[in-house]
Amino acid sequence: MTTLATTPDGSAARRSAPPAPPAAAPRRARQGGTVLAVPALVWYLVFMVGPMLAIFVIAALHWPGMLQPVSFAGLDNVRTVWDDPVFRDAVSNTAVQLAVALPVMIACAYMLGYYVAQRPPGHRVIRYLLFIPGLISTPAKAMVFYAALSPDGLVNGALEGVGLGSLTDAWLASPSTALACLIALDIWGGVGFTAVLIAARLGSVPDELGEAAQLDGAGHWRTMWTVHFPVIRDYIGVVTMLQFLWTLFGSAQHVLLLTQGGPGTSSTTLSFLVYQKAFIAADLGYSQTVGVFLFLAGLVGLLAIRRVFRQTY
Predict the structure, then answer these.
(1) SS3 of residue 144 by DSSP
(2) How confident is residue 222, by pLDDT bands cut at 50, 70 and 90?
(3) Residue 254 to residues 71, 152, 188, 246, 248: CA-CA distances in angstroms?
(4) Helix-, strand-, coil-residue percentages of the chain, each rounded to 5
(5) 3-state class (DSSP) for residue 251
(6) How many helices (H) and strands (E) does the chain have?
(7) What is the pLDDT of residues 189-205, one digit of tens each?
(8) What is the 3-state secondary structure (H, E, C) of 161-200?
(9) How far apart, in whole angstroms, are the C-alpha atoms of residue 260 and residue 75?
(10) More confident residue, 67 or 230
C-alpha cells in the first residue's frame, strides 16, 4: 500500500506504508500459550478433579477396607451418616469452630496488619515475629499446646502461682474445654500469617487516604475500619476464604495429635471424622459420604464469604 507525502518544496511524492503484520501471528501466539498451559491442565485434571470425582463415586459404595470386596450402596451411606449421632456432633463442633475461630482470627489479623502497615518502630521485626507460627510444623504446634495445657503444664502452673488453683483443669481431656483448646490453636496458628498478608496489601493503599481522614478528625480506629477496610474489602474476603478452607479441612491434624476426637465426641470435627472412618474404622463408603458433605459445606461457605466481602462500589 502506498500513500502521498508532501516534500519540503511542495511537490507530492509516493511513500510505501509499512507492511501490515500477518493476521495469523496473534493466533499463533494464543496457540503457543495454550500449549504451554497443557501440562498444568493435565496435572489439575488428574490430581484435583480426579480425586474430587472419586469422592462421589466411593460415597455410593459399600467398601469395608482397601482389599475388601466392593458393592454398590446407592443412598444407603447417606442414610447411615444422616442418622449417626457422631456425625451430628461433628457438624455441631465444626460449626462452632468456624463461627468462633474465623471472625476472631480475621478481626485480630486485620488490626495487627493495620498496625504493622503504619510502620511503627521495629515493624520489620514484628513482621517476622507474626510469621513465626506459620513456619512451625503442625506436630510442633501441637506439642507446644500439649505442654501448655496438660494437667501439669504451663497454664495450670500459672494459675496455681497466682492463687487461682481452683480454676485448673485437664484442658484437653475435659468435654467442656477440649474444643475450645483446638479453636485457640487454630487462631494462634493463623492470625500472624494472615496479619502479614493483610499488612502487605495495606502497604499498597495510598497514604493520602489515611492522612485526609485524620485531617477531617478521624482517629486511627475510625480510619482503620471506615477508610482502609472498604478499600481492601475484596482482599480480606480472599484471606477469609483461605482460612475458612484451612480450618474446615485442616482441623483433623490438630484433633488427631491432641484429643483424638474426645473425650467422647466433644472435639470430633467433620474432617477428623473422614480420617477416622477411612483409616481407623475402615469404612470408606461412610468416610467419603462425610467427605461429600464436607465438600458441599466448603462450597457453600466460599460462596457466602464471597458475597459478604464483595465490593459495593
Answers:
(1) helix
(2) confident
(3) 34, 20, 12, 12, 12
(4) 70, 5, 25
(5) helix
(6) 14, 4
(7) 899 889 999 999 998 88
(8) HCCCHHHCCCHHHCCCCHHHHHHHHHHHHHHHHHHHHHHH
(9) 29
(10) 230
- Residues 155 and 219: their CA atoms lie apart, in Å, by 37
| Residues 156 and 169 sit within 8 Å (Cβ to Cβ) | yes
Q: Distance from CA of residue 203 to its chain's centroid?
A: 22
Other Cβ atoms less than 10 A from the Cβ of 45: the count is 11
* 270 closest CA partner among 287, 284, 246, 258: 287
Q: Cell numbers at residue 45, please?
A: 485434571
- The DSSP element (H or E) to which 5 belongs, if any, is strand 2-6
pLDDT tens by residue, 138-163: 889 899 899 999 888 889 999 898 98
Q: Please list the residues that pair with 107 across neighbouring strands.
A: none
Total-model pTM: 0.83
Residue 11 has pLDDT above 70, yes or no: no
